[in-house]
Amino acid sequence: MILLMILLATNPCPAPHRSSNAASRFRKLHPCPGGKDKGSIKRCSGYVIDHKCPLACCGLDAPQNMQWQTYKASKAKDKVELTCSRFCSAPSKQ
């Protein structure tokens, strides 16, 4: 618990910034692996767009830092995302 508090207090990143069109650009470059939901260009049943290097770890909110991930895999990754070194080879600047 103390380590978590230290990590949160010493985070060198500014507050995560989300681009309003980054996910849209990602969808255009990488269609849904399960196929589009009928009548939708945004929904993708069973999948979410996830950041490879989390925003909280100075990851970019850009298509090159995004991936399709199943809901189950996303929930598992979310549980351990506080340890940035597991996901990011080197923190990227925003």
- What do the pLDDT scores average to? 76
Q: Determine the strand fraction and express it as a percent band.
A: 5-15%
Number of strands: 2
Q: Could you name the ranges where pLDDT drops below 50 across 5 or more consecutive residues? A: none
Helix content: 25-40%
**Basic shape:** globular
Structural class: alpha+beta
Number of domains: 1
Rg: 15 Å
Biggest sheet record: 2 strands, antiparallel
The separation of the N and C termini measures 28 Å
Report on this structure.
With about 90 residues, the protein is an alpha+beta fold. The chain has one domain (about 20-85). It has helices at about 1-10, 20-30, 70-80, and strands spanning about 45-50, 65-70. A two-stranded antiparallel sheet has the order 1-2. The longest helix has 10 residues, at about 70-80.
What's the layout of helices and strands?
Blueprint: H1 2-9, H2 22-29, E1 47-51, E2 66-70, H3 71-80
Antiparallel strand pairs: 1-2
